[in-house]
Amino acid sequence: MTARTTRLAPGVRTAMQSLSAAAKRGLGDPALAELVQIRASQLNRCAFCLDMHVAIARKEGVSDRRLDLLAVWQEAGDGVYDERERAALALTEAVTVLTDGFVPDEVYETAAKHFDEAELAHLIALITVINGWNRLMVARRIPPGGPAW
């Protein structure tokens, strides 16, 4: 499969990059930010973003075991992901999939127990922007390692 187009409007690219950077900074946990972006990219089947964020996660010190089990984080057992990470991953799935058209109160409330108001706002922004990136890359069929723009 080849890319449909490698063109992305420069203003859109700049805005998305700025939003991504601000969300990551505000979350303050680079490894968790990568886990969140990887999980959303898995759900959205975005090979480009998955490839990129797995490589970044490794640079941030995320172990191969945690990366290997991320798709099944709920079944991974104790000791693989802590409660804060589990809350972030549950929120990632709820925001990404929106099965019932909204994020369930229980998922949001659990996340709110582990993140202060500012962190939670940045986490939701990060989930939202990676979903946007996923859709941009999947719609254009940008392959792993392919041209981002």
Automatic annotation (TrEMBL):
InterPro entries: AhpD-like, AhpD_core, CMD-like. GO terms for molecular function: peroxiredoxin activity. It comes from the Bacteria. Gene3D superfamilies: AhpD-like. It holds the Pfam family CMD. Residues 15-93 form the Carboxymuconolactone decarboxylase-like domain. NCBIfam families: ahpD_dom (TIGR00778). This is Carboxymuconolactone decarboxylase-like domain-containing protein.
